[in-house]
Amino acid sequence: MKKTALALGFALGFALLSLTLHAQEPLSQTAQPARSAPTRFGPDWELSAWPALLLPVASENDSNALDFGGGFAVTARPLGANYLTLGLEGTYTYGLLRDSLGNDLGTSLSEAGLGLTAAAERPLGDLFAARAFLRGGLVMGRLNAGDPATSWYGRAETGVGLDFKPSPDWRLFADAAWDEHFGLYGALSFRAGSRWLLQSAAAKNAPRLRFGDFETGNVFPVLYSWYDDHGFGTVTLTNQGRETLKNLRAELSLKPHADGAKDCLTLASLKPGETITVELRSLLNPEVLNLTETSKASLELTVSYDDSKGRHEESRSGTIQFMDRNAITWDDDRKAAAFVSGKDPWVMDLSNNLNSLVKDLRVPGINKNIETALAVHQGLQAWGISYVHSPQSPFSRSFSNPEVIDYLKFPRQTLNYRAGDCADLSVLYASCFESLGIGTAFITVPGHIFMAIDLEMDPSAAASLSMAGDLIIRDGKTWLPLETTLRDGTLAEIVHEAAMEWQTESAKGDAAFYDIHEAWQLFPPVGLSDDGTRPGKLEFASRMQTSYSGELKPLAERELRFQLGDLDAQIKGDPKNPKLFNSRGVIMARFGRYDDASKDFSRAAALDSVPAMVNMGNLSFLKKQYADAKEWYTKAKSLAPESPGVAAAFARLEKTAAGSAAVASAAGTAQRGASMDETSLDWLE
Fold it and tell me: Whose CA is closest to 379, among 411, 352, 413?
């Protein structure tokens, strides 16, 4: 009795533990809870039949029996619980009775039972499944002697089994269990049999996949190429059948905004009850940039797969909302880079015309990109671009709510409307510089965005500029920040204002810097289609040149004084030092002060300075006085025949049309080429 109770308790505990663990543990690491109700027509019903063998090993009296029998069961798999079966079973066993010494008692025991059954399964690959089960009910026992006797008693059974699944509709199984017949005996029970799935025609033809609801956000036309690799929504797929689906492929159609279906999923297999999440992606066509209002579009996800009956397709349709072409959210500030278009016809016409207007007014000593920044800024001022700010503008509120939708203008629109907020103006300025081949960046601080340009200058050289304190050094590059909203400010003022904003907010950790070329790797630039319009003739050309020269001159004077530093004082204290005279002459020459440079180079050359002699030759070269240039280079060569600087000067002279004839007898060659200006010269220090 005691052994029977212990065995029964152990078996019951094992079965209950297996049931609990199986019910709580996911089928796989990728399985997820289903989001919508199953589409099955009802529970799956199964019919089982088996032969059985009972081996009694404990008794409540002096009898013991070896029983043979069989039974049948009808079980059901509840909706949404493929791992669980519940059912009703009937059993019959027959066995000869013997006493505890093994002597035949001359009678037999027949038992007929009816009971309930519950089992929990765990798949072991596609072909096998393990089970833990509980069974129990009432048994009618009959002693088959001369005067038959009948009695009713309870029965409980618990154990484990293994199923083999040669097809989705048929299984073979083998069970081992402890079977307790209360008040009579306990036995080891063994079953082996078959189980058949009972399905209606509707159930057999039911979809194998359950589609969850489409979870989609707004689609932004300006990011149309981004959606080729990044999703704008998700949907779940659940295998609600009893068979593993293989070779799954999901394609998304999004007409009329996509020219073809996009592969969103390729999966080797999906097990019964398993759920996966599909990321919705599509290669949209550029025509979405014509959307000027929010609109809806239809989408359809088609999933194909293989099962034991062949290849199948199932699909689900839905709708998605497209925003207008100017819409954007600031959850990632780099998205603004998609609006920067250096190839827009309006931008190219305007920026190149501005650059052409001032090309003959430039000062060699000023960094060329700083001069271009002055031209673009003054040109957009002359164009009449104004700053329009609203305290309720989306960018101002994006710091606390990055999902708020903003309306960001393309550069052509800002030029047309002649007004914009901080984001619009930053996009316009960046587009103009990009059209001229100058790299740009966005800078964001809480509630505000401005921009910067790459000076293409080594940071060590930038340290010698008068505005060095306003520059931004990042990753080996020197950037000039520009506060584009100061519409009446000079270049120096918008640079200083931007620098103060950057320094203040970056010190607090609230500033971000985005190289636009790097941002384009994630959010490629897009532009409006060419509608045939152009900005037209620049009526302010003459006024623009006057204002450009008026601002460039004091800028150059300030830069010249800064670079001269205390050279004048050093020369006064050491009037015999040729290096000091030559250094001052180089600075004067770089700023176009050639008369002053000539005086300093002459004094240094009189003190036998080879660099000063080459520099004197360079001045003659600029005046196209090639014979004089050759004479100076020759003097320098006589003192330093191996000097690379002298060799470079002769080589440059040979490449000019007039110079080649002047040195043909000495060099033995005559090459024709274009004349060179001061930007081609190497002033020797």
Answer: 352
Residue 308 has pLDDT above 60, yes or no: yes
pLDDT of residue 381: 95
Average pLDDT over residues 86-102: 84
Angstrom CA distances, 319 to 38, 250, 278, 434, stand at 22, 17, 16, 38
Q: Residue 613 corresponds to which tokens in the numbers above? A: 């002699």
Backbone angles phi, psi at 94, to 5 degrees: -140, 135
Residue 19 scores a pLDDT above 50: no
pLDDT in tens, 617-652: 999 998 889 999 999 999 999 999 988 988 988 888
DSSP 8-state symbol, 678: G
Contacts of 501 (CB under 8 A, 6+ apart): 443, 445, 448, 450, 481, 483, 511
Per the CB < 8 A criterion, the answer to whether 549 and 541 are in contact is no
CA distance readout (Å), 567 to 155, 195, 574, 583: 111, 102, 10, 8
Report how far residue 262's alpha carbon sits from residue 606's, in angstroms, rounded to the nearest whole number. 77
DSSP 499-536: HHHHHHHHHTT--EEEEHHHHHTTS--------S----
Cβ neighbours around 387 below 10 Å, total: 15
Residue in this structure with the two tokens 């014509």, named with its chain if needed: 290
The secondary structure element, H or E, covering residue 93 is: strand 84-99
Between CA 485 and CA 497 the distance in angstroms is 10
Place of tokens 């707004």: 218
Nearest one of 480, 364, 466, 488 to 433, comparing CA atoms = 480
Strands 104-124 and 233-239: unpaired
Q: Which residue has the tokens 């250096």?
A: 342
Q: Find the angle CA(650)-CA(651)-CA(652) to the nearest 5 degrees.
A: 90
Is residue 664 scored above 50 in pLDDT?
Answer: no
pLDDT tens readout for residues 500-541: 999 999 999 999 999 999 999 999 999 898 888 888 888 888
Nearest to 653 by CA among 678, 684, 612, 624: 624
Give the relative orientation of helices 578-590 and 541-564 as an angle to the nearest 10 degrees. Answer: 160
Phi and psi (nearest 5°) for 566? -105, 25
- Spatial CA neighbour of 112 closest among 52, 188, 193, 172: 52
Written as six digits, the tokens of 77 are 């798999």
DSSP conformation letters of 649-673: HHHHHHTSHHHHHHHHHHHS-----
- Strands 386-387 vs 419-420: parallel, antiparallel or unpaired: parallel
Report the distance separating Cα 208 and Cα 277, nearest Å. Answer: 16
What percentage of the chain reaches a pLDDT higher than 70? 85
Q: 359: which 2 tokens?
A: 């090309």
Residue 588: partners with Cβ closer than 8 Å, 6 or more residues away:
560, 594, 596, 597, 600
